[in-house]
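As the next step, I wrote out a protein sequence along with its fold in token form, included below for the reader:
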Amino acid sequence: MSEKKFNRRKFLKAAIGSGLLIASGNLLSGCELTADIDKPPSYNTDNKIKDLDINYLRQIVTHDPATSRCIMWKTDDILRTPEVEVKISDSDEIKTFTAVDCSFTDDDHIINQYSAKIEGLEVNKNYEYRIVEGNHCSEWHLLKTSNNENFKALIFPDSQCGDYKVWENVAKDAFARNPDAAFFVNIGDLVDNGEDWTQWRSWFQGAADFLDKIICVPMLGNHECYNRQWQIRQPIAYLNYFDLPENGSEDFKRRYYSFDFGDVHFAIFDSQWYELDEVGGDGDKLINEQKEWLKRDISESQKKWKIVLTHKDVLQYRINGRPERLEGFSDVGIEFMPLFDELNVDIVFTGHLHTYRDRGHIYNFEHNPQGALYILTGNAGDVRYPGLWIDHELDLVKAPQPEIDNYLTMEVSSDKIIVKCFLYDGTEIDNVVVEKYSN
């Protein structure tokens, strides 16, 4: 949520507590069942009827996507024995994995959905997978594994929309131009209103061209925390739609996580402590827990590159019409930028402000090649704030004004990372190369 949107909406404290409760009073399901996950996969070569109707089919990131994947999907009908079959392309040998029921109710709408943890994959292989219910199945879908140090990722800024055709066009065109992308990131505020199930349907439809083919790396934004009355609530739909890697937390499961890809360690943390406070949670506990987790998580990684992503931005901008608001650093920046310095983080990606800004490398709150590259990713939806932000002294590159839609690519190789920003039509507006700092 931008400052503009915050000012025009009146927020009241939500009546729910810090527990993850839905409107009907049922506990958040969260795909907690783990039965059969450790059972050796069975083999099945029976012919099946390809008439199983599934929606929102998606590959969700795991701690190690080189050897595992989380497959999730929605159905109109309840499945009794949901499974996922996996085989190496051009092979007849099929492994079967049991799925668990992750259905939930939100916005007075029942979402029948299922999740299966696929383990034991071989690296650098082309697989196919399909959803199975008894003697019925879906079509086969592509699943690729990799442990290569060279790869490309797509990064989408906030995709919240009034008309999700905008998000769909940006997403489809970006994937069409980058069919070799191994995964995609959505930097938070996937939808404008977290309770509205029709917006989630539109978000999934917008990414349908690639959601089943490449890995989805989502993160929590503040708009996932709103109900239909624009009051703050728990991010119920987000936490149910994405069965994300465990983080060891009892209180903040799936709100932050990490994973490895190639020679890069990615850490995604939750910057919605204000929203957590508003629903009776403990924002300070979330901050402190994540600081300790980041120290442990990043320092223990043996990967060459360290990248951090979070929704809210690290800088504070002056705003036209708000002379009392000073340029500086946000609470996210004040709390976490010294830690990024300490941990030698290479790149930090943020969102929230719906404007693309390349700040270059920052260390100790000022430009310095020793520090991480800070990129504010921009806007992949139709919620725009023309003329709102006054340029920050740390900005080096900004998108053409007034803002229009954009996306980013990140190309990783053994000795460098190249981050490029493109307008929705494929016009390149920024290209920055990150190499390991040396004195």
